[in-house]
Amino acid sequence: AFEVLVIGGGPAGAAAAVYAARKGIRTGVAAERFGGQVLDTMAIENFISVQHTEGPKLATALEQHVKQYDVDVMNLQKAVGLVAPKTPGGLIEVKLENGASLKSRTVILSTGARWRNVNVPGEAEYKNKGVAYCPHCDGPLFKGKRVAVIGGGNSGVEAAIDLAGIVAHVTLIEYDSQLRADAVLQRKLASLPNVTIVTSAMTTEIHGDGAKVNGLSYKDRNHDTAHRVDLEGVFVQIGLVPNTEWLKDSNVALSNRGEIEVDYRGETSMPGVFAAGDATTTPYKQIIIAMGEGAKASLSAFDYLIRLPAE
Ligand code: FAD
């Protein structure tokens, strides 16, 4: 059995594994895809002290750093269930899709999240070529250009306000007849001179010239008319879904958005189970934050372990 078992091999999981291994305790990492969202990222310019890197390069570095230590890395392993110990302080069980199960004194959940796609022609083709999901990450790439934000909930309206300060013009596209963001955000958005808000609009296609995005088409749902906006970027903001479906039947408390509830130490509602990164209720889903939280969860797990009664 492990003393620390990390589920997920993104920035949070990698940081947790390194911190655990450096305590000299038996550490394992099971990940469906080591590297996580970082593998799908092109330019990364906000990982402090590294001015510019690329996702696949950072993902390789994460894996190399973890493998510097005596960590049992189990890649391509999907967790499907978490079972609480039979007695307090006992072994926690993680069930894998392949039928096997892993046992550990502590478990760190870091299964991350995924952006919801609009699923229109052009979205997949132009991902990282004008189609973006993270305004904090990619906003500056569109300095002085025209962009659209798809989604009028809090994240979409926040993104539009944020981007309006950087880009030339923002078109906010909302499917519903009204925005769903908090009133204070809507007021702020409405006050900005370089933002156009379009409601009752269904995005139908993201256009490009083969190399990069050059437009977006939507259907006006009230009048059934087609429109095209010329622009250079599209930010899809229709939800970040935590990868926590596999925890629904466990005793780990999830928020109404499915995020793992953690306290300031990274503890979940289940003793011995900690969590970090995009899968949790911690706000602002970023690499540097996920890594810090992973380190924190790992140190909390160590604190828990040294307080367990000797067998
Ligand atoms: P993830 O990176 O999502 O990793 C989750 C891990 O868990 C993966 O290994 C996954 O395979 C695994 N997993 C999931 N479910 C299971 C399961 N059931 N069993 C086992 N393993 C499982 N952030 C920045 O700071 N700067 C940027 O420039 C930036 N650009 C981005 C661009 C894109 C296109 C995207 C999608 C995200 C970007 N982000 C950026 C956000 C950043 O990638 C995330 O905040 C960060 O990766 C979160 O780390 P994490 O470890 O919590 O989760």
From TrEMBL:
Domain FAD/NAD(P)-binding: 3-294
rRNA processing listed as a keyword: no
Disulfide bonds: C134-C137
GO molecular function: flavin adenine dinucleotide binding; NAD binding; NADH-dependent peroxiredoxin activity; oxidoreductase activity, acting on a sulfur group of donors, NAD(P) as acceptor
One GO cellular component, as annotated: protein-containing complex
UniProt keyword NAD present: yes
Domain of life of the organism encoding this protein: Bacteria
Assembly information from the UniProt record: Homodimer.
Family membership noted in the UniProt record: Belongs to the class-II pyridine nucleotide-disulfide oxidoreductase family.
Annotated protein name in UniProt: Thioredoxin reductase
Native source species: Caulobacter zeae
Covered residues, full protein: 211 to 521 of 526
